[in-house]
Design goal:
Layout: E1 11-16, H1 23-35, E2 38-44, H2 55-65, E3 72-77, H3 81-87, E4 92-97, H4 103-116, E5 121-126, H5 136-144, H6 155-163
Parallel strand pairs: 1-2, 1-4, 2-3, 4-5
Bound molecules: 4'-phosphopantetheine.
């Protein structure tokens, strides 16, 4: 028998820019929290795209929404994700999948990470269908143009979006 993965009793990393966190992200985090002993939500400090919210705001909004999940921690990282995973001794990266359109990018990222770090596995969790269209970019656009985002993001984020 080949390698066996015991996904329970393990640490997983859920990375992203979370600019800002949406109900879709929270859905993935709560699914991950049921599968793993510890989930580290890893917020990238400087993503390739410029963020609307500062690192500390993005982390604060996440922390506010995750108070009910004691096995979930919020942290930040710089540089390569696999280096951060190794630093935290996590062997699993979680990514959410919404629709087929996510697949190309996620496939490329997972295989690139596997090439660099074969010991780290990427696991995809399917988001609830209610959030399959949801993205942080659209949330920001709707908020900027005066639309109602209260069904798309948690209350703490609605407040922050009203300020920008
Ligand atoms: O929420 P996002 O923007 O889809 O998250 C993308 C993220 C932050 C997970 C990804 O860009 C990342 O891991 N960046 C760190 C740099 C890195 O490791 N690059 C190699 C992976 S292809």
């Amino acid at each position: 028998m080949g390698k066996r993965y015991l996904i329970f009793m393990k640490k997983a990393i859920y990375p992203g820019s979370f600019d800002p966190v949406t109900n879709g992200h929270l859905d993935i985090i709560s699914r991950a929290a049921q599968l793993f002993d510890e989930v580290i939500v890893a917020v990238i400090r400087n993503p390739d795209k410029k963020t609307k919210f500062s690192l500390s705001k993005r982390k604060k909004m996440l922390k506010n929404c995750l108070l009910g999940l004691p096995n979930v921690k919020v942290n930040n990282f710089d540089g390569l994700l696999i280096d951060y995973a190794r630093l935290r001794e996590a062997k699993i990266i979680i990514r959410g999948l919404r629709a087929v359109s996510d697949f190309d990018y996620e496939f490329q990222m997972a295989l690139t990470n596997r090439k660099m770090a074969p010991e780290i596995e990427t696991i995809f969790l399917m988001t609830d269908y209610r959030y399959s269209y949801l993205s942080s970019s659209f949330v920001k656009q709707i908020a900027r143009l005066g639309g109602d985002v209260s069904a798309l993001v948690p209350g703490a984020v609605v407040k922050e979006l009203r300020r920008i």
